[in-house]
Design goal:
Blueprint: E1 2-4, H1 10-18, H2 27-53, E2 61-70, E3 73-82, E4 87-93, E5 98-102, E6 107-111, E7 116-119, H3 122-139, E8 147-153, E9 159-163, H4 166-170, E10 173-175, H5 179-189, H6 198-208, H7 216-219, E11 242-244, E12 247-250, E13 255-257, H8 261-271, E14 275-276, H9 278-285, H10 290-298, E15 302-305, E16 310-313
Helix pairs in contact: 1-2, 1-8, 9-10
Length: 316
């Protein structure tokens, strides 16, 4: 059973809100767009790997996109498969072209047909995840299960090469389609060992999961004042469409929308802070009427905090 399904990560949503509000092709926009594309590739890789792992859901407990806290910090795992005998960490990697695992220097090298690029060593990454999960489970009095780990290459056409101990790398690294088979082979070896309630462990982990987040403003050295304000056209993407009677109009594509401001407010809550005042709403949506801002906020399923004099999301 998949008890925690993969959803679009919070950071991707933030970048989707951020990029249209930066001056296009500025150094900041280029830097943020590069990071967005990198994270989007990773997300697509996780979807592809999850497809292959989903066949194990009939027997085992699966959690996708797991983020847990330990010692004041968080650590992430793309997929956790929990069986009656063991826990399996699967780290998804979405590389194209030819990749070389240099097991001697602990480095990954990608050749895309034009140039070579070095990356952090995925096996070291998943080994650290193993250690952190093991400590986390011990701190939460979980049954003492063996933990195995794999690096799943999501793109079937990616060529995998190894410098050093090929057998040792091959035990951990494989194309995504091969990972379920590797897990089943281990399960056959563990068949005689004592069983645990894997669903119970899965729900315990899910209850403690948090959503991974980063300060993307600090990462890209920007402040809220650097952002372009206004409402974005849902059709053509133009920013700063005009407020007219009971709606918004885009003069570029000549279309009118009743509630285009909802996406702009969502951008604000993602990027700036989880509350907004009437004045801030006027500035963000480019309104010249306080009454219009109030009407919009009232109709946006928000709660007015009379003590703080601001609008915030209603508690679910």
């Amino acid at each position: 059973m998949i008890v925690k399904k993969l959803a679009k990560p919070l950071l991707l949503k933030k970048y989707e809100a951020l990029l249209p509000r930066l001056m296009i092709n500025s150094p900041t926009w280029l830097d943020a767009n590069q990071e967005f594309n990198r994270r989007m590739r990773g997300y697509k890789g996780e979807i592809r790997v999850g497809y292959y792992l989903s066949g194990l859901a009939q027997k085992y407990t699966i959690l996708q996109d797991v983020c847990l806290g330990a010692d004041g910090q968080t650590f992430q795992m793309d997929d956790l498969i929990i069986s009656p005998h063991a826990i399996y960490i699967v780290e998804a990697k979405n590389y194209h072209g030819t990749i070389t695992f240099d097991h001697i220097l602990k480095q990954l090298i990608r050749h895309d047909g034009e140039k070579e690029t070095g990356f952090a060593y995925p096996i070291t990454q998943v080994e650290l995840q193993h250690d952190k999960l093991q400590n986390w489970l011990h701190d939460h009095s979980s049954p003492n299960l063996p933990i195995y780990y794999f690096v799943a290459i999501s793109e079937p056409s990616t060529i995998i090469k190894v410098i050093g101990n090929q057998q040792e790398v091959a035990e951990i690294v494989a194309h995504a389609a091969m990972i379920p088979k590797k897990i089943m082979e281990i399960e056959e070896r563990l068949a005689a060992s004592e069983k645990v309630q894997h669903q119970k462990i899965g729900y315990m982990i899910m209850k403690e999961c948090t959503e991974f987040d980063l300060d993307i403003f600090a990462q890209h050295k920007i402040t809220p004042s650097n952002l372009l304000t206004g409402v974005q056209c849902p059709e053509c993407g133009s920013l700063g469409i005009e407020r007219v009677h009971s709606g918004w109009i885009c003069h570029k594509c000549q279309k009118k929308y009743a509630a285009a401001h909802k996406a702009a407010l969502e951008d604000y809550f993602l990027l700036i802070k989880p509350w907004i005042t009437n004045t801030e709403c006027m500035q963000w949506l480019k309104l010249d009427s306080r009454n219009t801002a109030t009407r919009i906020l009232k109709s946006s399923n928000l709660f007015f905090n009379s003590k703080r004099r601001w609008w915030e999301r209603k508690e679910m």
